[in-house]
């Protein structure tokens, strides 16, 4: 699998840190050579019989080991703080100055050892730190020349050291400038890799990099984070009418319009095709919904060339909004929540903003704390069904939304509306007993498979009737596949024998089944589905309710 740009960057930084750690270790070992020479030659000692030499050499080894331990500690920290960086530089300079002093000070042949620390820290931290270290090293060399060079004659060591000092600054400046150019080039390449070439927004790959980082940060710091997903309405029709070049120009203009409505900290991405998304750190659901509506309105009132050929003679967008909650388990769930909200906005006739809310949360909150508790096992069953057949799960979500629209259109009393919504949520619960092969069948079902599937209203009702508080929902769920002319199942009821709310649910359930993809049947448009409902008035559907549903949705 191809690594993301960010992962590649982290891997490269890890390799560079390993290289510098090795380089610094070698520099420390190299600095030990003049120390041992000092203890052996300057003190003229016998290593075997002279205890002082043993102590001195032992102390030297201990100091070097302590420095190495400190470096190992710094190396293994994922984030270096400034204090540790300064302390690391001070320790290296102190060790190297000590080495030069004990190996002859101004006469030492080891003054070049400063190049180790200049090279290492310039490459690792940039030109500024490299020049600072070069200045300190130069000051130490000049100070040793002045204090220990004597006053008689020409100080030949000073003349040689001038060339060395020039080298210090030249190395620091050259390496620092190279590092600066390389960083600028890498940043430029990273920007190109993360930007969508057409719209100028960040691209799909960058979106997944950013949302994983921002999700983790929000969870860690308990901060708000919202995600807005935007889909252009009738973009395919716009392309067909105006051509793909005009479609590309439209996407560019849409991107610019969206950017003008966003806060500075918001990040716009082209998610793919005609879909955009926005990460909004620091704002909750209500604020994000307001920003999303501003985006929708800005697109709606903008005069795009060629939009006169579209329905309503203007370009519009559908928008879904989701915000982090305790129920969001990972960033993929976060994306799915925003996507489901967008889907609701699309099927609710477009040019809308929909905020994600779990249908379980809606039904649970409307039924009181006691009912919320007993609904939790049912949510688990729905989740199991989703793992076996995502169509059923999404179907339940859509049926719930249609039921809410219908209940509001009919101005149902609150207790009647609650019963309809609970029934919408639970009407396919019995499919937990249907085999996965039947649920996901990609061709016409056999008579045996149909018989198995037709049992789900009875099984759903059997599960629900065990729950105190949902007794009035049982007949609605049991009868949602009955037909107005008595040819339905499981009881063959007809007309007024069928619960009023069940007759509503029958129309909604059938309409959603007609307008969404199933491998064994052709998907209908809304208009085609309305024609089918019109044709089936009085046979499958209650004529009055069928007309009321088309008024509510159309």
TrEMBL record:
Domain HD: 392-514
Gene3D superfamilies listed in its UniProt record: 3.30.70.270, Hypothetical protein af1432
All copies of domain GGDEF, residue ranges: 223-358
Keywords: Membrane, Transmembrane, Transmembrane helix
Domain of life (superkingdom): Bacteria
Listed transmembrane segments: 21-40, 52-76, 83-102, 131-150, 162-179
CDD domains: GGDEF (cd01949), HDc (cd00077)
Keyword Disulfide bond: no
Pfam families according to UniProt: GGDEF (PF00990), HD_5 (PF13487)
Record carries keyword Transmembrane: yes
InterPro entries noted in UniProt: GGDEF_dom (IPR000160), HD/PDEase_dom (IPR003607), HD_domain (IPR006674), HD_GYP_dom (IPR037522), Nucleotide_cyclase (IPR029787), Rev_trsase/Diguanyl_cyclase (IPR043128)
SMART domains: GGDEF, HDc
Domain HD-GYP: 370-554
PANTHER family from the UniProt entry: CYCLIC DI-GMP PHOSPHODIESTERASE PA4108, CYCLIC DI-GMP PHOSPHODIESTERASE PA4108-RELATED
NCBIfam families the record matches: GGDEF (TIGR00254)
Protein name according to UniProt: Diguanylate cyclase (GGDEF) domain-containing protein
Annotated organism of origin: Parasporobacterium paucivorans DSM 15970
Organism lineage: Bacteria, Bacillati, Bacillota, Clostridia, Lachnospirales
């Amino acid at each position: 699998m191809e690594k993301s740009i960010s992962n590649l960057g982290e891997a490269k930084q890890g390799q560079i840190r390993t290289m510098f750690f090795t380089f610094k270790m070698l520099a420390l070992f190299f600095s030990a050579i003049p120390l041992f020479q000092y203890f052996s030659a300057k003190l003229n000692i016998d290593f075997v019989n002279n205890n002082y030499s043993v102590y001195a050499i032992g102390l030297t080894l201990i100091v070097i080991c302590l420095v190495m331990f400190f470096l190992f500690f710094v190396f293994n920290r994922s984030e270096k703080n400034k204090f540790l960086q300064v302390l690391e530089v001070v320790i290296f300079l102190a060790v190297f100055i000590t080495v030069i002093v004990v190996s002859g000070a101004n006469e030492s042949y080891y003054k070049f050892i400063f190049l180790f620390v200049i090279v290492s820290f310039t490459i690792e931290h940039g030109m500024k730190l490299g020049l600072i270290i070069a200045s300190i090293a130069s000051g130490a060399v000049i100070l040793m020349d002045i204090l220990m060079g004597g006053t008689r004659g020409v100080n030949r060591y000073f003349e040689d050291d001038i060339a060395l000092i020039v080298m210090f600054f030249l190395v620091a400046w050259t390496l620092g400038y190279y590092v600066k150019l390389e960083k600028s080039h890498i940043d430029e390449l990273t920007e190109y890799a993360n930007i969508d070439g057409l719209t100028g927004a960040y691209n799909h790959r960058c979106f997944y990099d950013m949302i994983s980082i921002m999700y983790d940060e929000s969870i860690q710091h308990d901060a708000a984070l919202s995600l807005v997903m935007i889909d252009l309405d009738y973009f395919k029709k716009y392309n067909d009418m105006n051509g793909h070049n005009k479609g590309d120009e439209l996407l560019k203009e849409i991107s610019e319009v969206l950017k003008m409505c966003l806060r500075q900290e918001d990040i716009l991405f082209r998610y793919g095709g005609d879909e955009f998304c926005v990460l909004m750190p620091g704002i909750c659901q209500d604020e994000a919904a307001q920003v999303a509506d501003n985006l929708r309105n800005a697109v709606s009132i903008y005069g795009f060339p060629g939009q006169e050929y579209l329905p309503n003679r203007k370009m519009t967008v559908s928008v879904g909004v989701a915000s982090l909650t305790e129920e969001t388990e990972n960033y993929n769930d976060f994306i799915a929540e925003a996507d489901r909200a967008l889907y609701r906005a699309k099927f609710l006739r477009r040019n809308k903003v929909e905020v994600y809310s779990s249908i379980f949360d809606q039904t649970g909150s409307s039924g009181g704390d006691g009912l919320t508790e007993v609904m939790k096992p049912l949510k688990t069953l729905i989740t199991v069904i989703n793992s076996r057949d995502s169509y059923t799960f999404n179907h339940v979500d859509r049926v719930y939304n249609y039921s809410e629209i219908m209940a509001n259109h009919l101005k149902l009393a609150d207790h009647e509306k609650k019963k309809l919504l609970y029934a919408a949520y639970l009407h396919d619960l019995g499919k937990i007993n249907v085999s996965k092969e039947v649920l996901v069948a990609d061709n016409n079902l056999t008579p045996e498979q149909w018989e198995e599937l037709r049992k789900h209203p009875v099984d759903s009702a059997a599960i629900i009737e065990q729950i105190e508080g949902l007794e009035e929902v049982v007949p609605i769920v049991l009868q949602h596949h009955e037909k107005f002319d008595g040819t339905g199942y499981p009881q063959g009821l007809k007309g007024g024998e069928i619960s009023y709310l069940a007759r509503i649910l029958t129309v909604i359930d059938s309409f959603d089944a007609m307008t969404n993809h199933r491998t064994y049947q052709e998907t209908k448009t809304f208009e085609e589905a309305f024609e089918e409902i019109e044709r089936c008035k009085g046979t499958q559907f209650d004529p009055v309710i069928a007309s009321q549903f088309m008024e509510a949705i159309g």
